[in-house]
Amino acid sequence: MTLAIGLSVLAAFLWAITNILDKTLVSRYFDDVRSLYIPISLTEFVFGVASLSISWAIFEPGHFVLAIVGGGAFVVMGYTYFHAAKIEDISRVAPLFAIVPVSTAILSAIFLREIFSPITYAGIGLIVCGAMLIMFRGSVRMIFQSRALGLMLLSAVVVSFYIVIMKYLLEYYSFWSVFGWLSVFSGLIGTLLFSRHWNILLIQVKTKGAKGPWLAVLSETLSSSAGLISTLASSLWFVTIVSAVSTVQYVFVFVFSLIISRYRPNLFREEISPKIALQKIFAIALIIAGLLVVS
Predict the structure, then answer these.
(1) How far is residue 220's CA from residue 10's CA, in Å, rounded to a whole number?
(2) Where does residue 180 rank: exposed (0-12), middle (13-18), buried (19+ CB within 10 A)?
(3) What digits encode the pLDDT tens for the residues 102-147?
């Protein structure tokens, strides 16, 4: 259990760095999210092939279908997330992934029969409340009128399907094979869906330089590394709790956003006044309390 917690926190740290890079990408280098997804999908594919080279397994036909669905779900998750990050503060967007433990718990209970005590679900509830508080802007109504919220709700539900599929496949195959095939299919689907936007990508490289695509490769490399670590953690512990512990990512995102707002405001602008900082600190306290309960 201790190893699984450590792996989950490490994955969260890497995902937080990825969030900061992603916000920089959509703010400074990519006007069109679809062109951004080309280098990301190619990196995902390469990462998947590298994983399969470590442990190769041929899935049963039905399991291959699940892997394809999981790969497609990951593409939808990323696409909606990048759109949300483009129109909203990353320190507000990233915490909305805290919805994932709730939807994952529901799906896990239905498909994997993972049932936990009321105290565990109470901890997950604290995490979600903390994340929603970070999105608060004067009234609850404004939260639910946010376009970013709608995009992230879809993203969170879709990634829950990805997590449940991953956990199910881990009952039959090694985590290298599961992570590898999910990454390969995610990379292939993303590349095929956005292949028509190569010209846009080339134009952006000519006008803004190649730094953007290389940062996208770095971001996806870190994200894939975090995903691999999270997959390993899920193979060692309950998928719902691993998903909940990983929400410490939002603490890291908040801290990184404060640092960037103070020392590198040219990268992207964050709405961080003393009042909002206190609001987010309280939200983080709720998240930490939830983490302590579920662990």
Answers:
(1) 16
(2) buried
(3) 777 777 677 766 667 788 778 878 877 887 787 777 766 666 667 7
The string of pLDDT tens digits covering residues 48-83 is 999 899 888 888 889 999 999 999 999 999 899 999
Q: Is 209 left (phi over 0), alpha (psi -120 to 50) or beta?
A: left
| CA 63/CA 168 separation, integer angstroms | 9
Domain boundaries, the chain: 2-294
What's the rounded Cα separation, in Å, for the pair 257 and 7? 23
Which token pair is 261? Answer: 């707002």
115 dihedral zone (left: phi>0; alpha: psi -120 to 50; beta): beta
Contact 155, 20 (CB under 8 A): no
